[in-house]
Amino acid sequence: MSITEPQDHQDLRAAVSALGAKYGRAYFTQVVNEGRHTDELWSEAGKLGYLGVSLPEEYGGGGGGIAELSIVLEELGAAGCPLLMLIVTPAITGTVIARFGTESQKREWLPGLADGSRKMAFGITEPDAGSNSHRITTTARRDGDDWILTGRKVFVSGVDIADATLIVSRTEDARTGRLKPCLFIVPRDTPGFQRTMIPMELFGPEKQFELVLDEVRLPADALVGDEDAGLFQLFAGLNPERIMTAAMALGIGRLAMGVSVEYARTRQVWKGGPIGVHQAIAHPLAQAHVELELARLMMQKAAALYDSGDDAAAGEAANMAKYAAAEAAVKAVDQSVHTLGGNGLTKEFGLAQLITASRVARIAPVSREMILNYISHQTLGLPKSY
Ligand SMILES: Cc1cc2nc3c(=O)[nH]c(=O)nc-3n(C[C@H](O)[C@H](O)[C@H](O)COP(=O)(O)OP(=O)(O)OC[C@H]3O[C@@H](n4cnc5c(N)ncnc54)[C@H](O)[C@@H]3O)c2cc1C
């Protein structure tokens, strides 16, 4: 891994940034206000190869890795269009299918995920498990060649617009104890697969859903990978999820900083110059910029480790990157709102809606505290309290 970004990554960054600028925050805002989805941007990004940049070339992808996909999400976010489904569809479900799916699952799903014509959601969180994934109770039992899934999920994004959801469950014979997950592709209209939208205080086109799986019957080939593979297969998808959440946070942080720095440069209320001449305004913005840059370095390290196949080292780095980027984004947005004074809360400048957007990165897919727990135990060797 090079500390400076290689030329092909710089070129990708510039090209995606140009696509983002073509749509911009005005497009995103209009789509959300009209209750639509970012279909035009999604499909153009698919045609240009950006959605599938990390998927294998033989299935219509670009043959790159999470490093490239994280550039796509960061740049679209910085341009005002943070596409949450990029985390769920190519990064989690695309990666898991590409690494562990059967040949027919790869042929069925990857070309569509790559060109943007199909989407897949991802459901792991449960109402009674939350941060403790080992407590999930969604259960798969065999019935002849079929599988029957029963359980509940919560906060699952984009189920309404996804052709299917990749559901994390456990098999009946591993119903308690440490999670031995197995993953199933559940098409949206499968009988017994019910969804209810959760009203959220978020400004984005993707909705979150509570799911009920009531005796959902699936064919044998709905199972992705090996039912005995354990956590390894799941983390093949969760590490990219963390890296991509870092990318989304960085994009949102940069979006806010673009507005606030320009405001600090031009807003004048005293004789001596714009408000940006005051260090009480300039220094926190400078600090926020430094912290976003540092977080990107960690994200690039995590992506490089993941793409090199070092899943173990990528785990620690992905957690650190998600933590650092979320904290940097929350701070950048907070300082940006403050820099604009009353305008920080107007719809015209659109910063207040980034407060909840940046907080998502602190909570999901794994909370700040659970990352600090992971670092305390895994990295520092401190004892566990739970
Ligand atoms: C916008 C959004 C989109 C989402 N999309 C998806 C999706 O597509 N698919 C999906 O499966 N899930 C999704 N989630 C769910 C998300 O991953 C969970 O919200 C997250 O994992 C936290 O779980 P929880 O909400 O149950 O919080 P809880 O586990 O109830 O935690 C509540 C609080 O307690 C703290 N806490 C818990 N345990 C500990 C501990 N041991 N030590 C210290 N503190 C602790 C947490 O840090 C948190 O602050 C989404 C969530 C949001 C907000």
From TrEMBL:
Cofactor (UniProt): FAD
First and last residue of the signal peptide: none
Similarity annotation: Belongs to the acyl-CoA dehydrogenase family.
Gene3D superfamilies: Acyl-CoA dehydrogenase/oxidase, N-terminal domain, Butyryl-CoA Dehydrogenase, subunit A, domain 2, Butyryl-CoA Dehydrogenase, subunit A, domain 3
Residues annotated as domain Acyl-CoA oxidase/dehydrogenase middle: 121-196
Protein name: Acyl-CoA dehydrogenase family protein
Domain of life, source organism: Bacteria
E.C. code: 1.-.-.-
Assigned keywords, A-Z: FAD, Flavoprotein, Oxidoreductase
CDD domains cross-referenced by the UniProt entry: ACAD (cd00567)
Pfam families on file: Acyl-CoA_dh_1, Acyl-CoA_dh_M, Acyl-CoA_dh_N
GO molecular function list: oxidoreductase activity
